[in-house]
Amino acid sequence: MKISEVIRSLNTEVVQGQFEDTELEGAYTSDLLSDVMANAKSAGALITIQAHKNTVAVATLVNISLIIICNSRPIPEDMIEAAREEGVAIIRTSENQFMTSGRLFNLLGCR
Amino acid sequence: MQDDIPINTIDSPTVILELIYRLKIKDVMTTALITAKRTDTLRHIQALMKENYITGVPIAEDQRLLGIVSIDDIVTALDKGYIDDVAEKRMTRNVIVLEDDMPLSFAISYLNKYRYGRFPVLNKARELVGIITSKDVIRTLLVEINREVLRLEKKQSHTTPEDSAVRELQFTTTHYDFEGAGHASTEIKKALKELNLDPKLIRRIAIASYELEINQVVHSYGGTITCSIQGDRVIITAEDTGPGIENIELALQEGWSTANEWIRSLGFGAGMGLANTKRVSDEFTIESTAGGPTKVVSVIYLKQVKEQDE
């Protein structure tokens, strides 16, 4: 499934919408950046509450193409800027990581 | 604003940025605290201010901060005629505080952001341990800047340009500078991408450099990250100026970390940094002594791909 389709299906706020619309290969849920580095899948989504610039740095390094910020966490401007520069999409949802992971699990047909 | 400390915490010269991130509030604050009890009168507090040449007195009980009375409060009390009221009745209760572990940059932005002349400082246990004013900040900065200028002058006369056959990239890191953290790794990754290396290899190198970079930002006084691209290998070297690792064996253990709460809340300090680095490296060495510098070298071969990534 393409990133844009996933975003459309989740029907939530698009915070940073400049990205290359590639196929989403999976997702990883974590708030520990070292854990994300070690275990996140390439070309996947990251489900997290860590809304700051370092999340974008980690995402870029391990080729994460979509960051989903949960619990309506505020997102600082420098994070959005960094993501725009690197072409990483950011969306934000009021739901928590569990609910969001569940939705992606179904959307990506992981069952 | 005229009262601002004229230092930009984001794009000042590197030397200044290193200083304001390396120094902690506890290095700068006044610890000889003059406090008053909640039952003291404003008149008593006024006398305290006069005797000690200060303009603000924290109200505390058993090292717990209850509020603060500033010289403005005293002037108002004299004007309105309640100078004999007890502090408890008139003090400011919602006091903005700083933590002793935070970098000095926080104090500078607070002093510039809020119109207060002083901020009480609490430790991790929320105990009142000091107070910081713009005077403290300016005095410490002048001393440190002098020392730094002296060091740079000496260094300049010693350095000679060096040439090397291999391609080398070097970046400096600064203690607690999470704004700049990740810069080295991002640049290294860009340079590797241009060489058209296998994306899996690039990922491993990026993990090693990022973990080592973050380690320096979180734990060291600052240091350098060097990426040397040679014919058949990439060598990432992380060297810092201290304070060293007490027990290397423990530090290598997954899940073991000395990071504080504040760092953990940013998603770091999970105790996986060195373990992650070792896992992605073909050769890995670490040298450190307590109180001394730490040097970590991660070598990744370009010819063969580690099995775990197949």
* Spatial order of the strands forming the largest sheet of chain B: 6-7-8-10-9
Rg value of chain B = 25 Å
Q: Give the CA-based shape of chain B.
A: elongated
Total domain count of chain A: 1
Strand content of chain B: 15-25%
- Protein chains sharing the most extensive interface: A-B, 21 and 23 residues
Quaternary structure: heterodimer
Low-confidence stretches of chain B: 160-165
Mean pLDDT of chain B: 88
Q: Provide the gyration radius of chain A in Å.
A: 12 Å
Q: Helical element count of chain A? A: 5
- End-to-end gap of chain B: 59 Å
Describe this structure in words.
The complex is a heterodimer of chains A (111) and B (310). Chain A has helices spanning 3-10, 33-39, 53-61, 77-86, 97-107, and strands at 13-16, 27-29, 45-48, 66-69, 89-92. Chain A has 111 residues and is of the alpha/beta class. Chain A has one domain: HprK N-terminal domain-like (Udp-n-acetylmuramoylalanyl-d-glutamate--2,6- Diaminopimelate Ligase, Chain: A, domain 1), CATH 3.40.1390. Helix content of chain A is 41%, strand content 17%. Chain A is globular. In chain A, α3 packs parallel to α4. In chain A, β3 (45-48), α3 and β4 (66-69) form a beta-alpha-beta unit. Chain A has a five-stranded mixed beta sheet with strand order 1-5-4-3-2, sandwiched between helices. Chain B is an alpha+beta fold. Chain B is built from twelve helices and ten strands. Chain B has helices at residues 14-22, 25-28, 42-52, 71-80, 87-90, 104-113, 134-158, 183-194, 199-219, 248-252, 261-264, 273-280, and strands at residues 56-61, 64-70, 98-99, 118-122, 128-133, 167-174, 222-229, 233-240, 283-288, 294-301. In chain B, a hairpin with a 2-residue loop joins β1 and β2 (64-70). In chain B, α1 crosses α7 (134-158). Chain B is elongated. The N and C termini of chain B lie far apart (59 Å). The relative contact order of chain B is 0.11. The interface between A and B is medium-sized, with 21 and 23 residues.
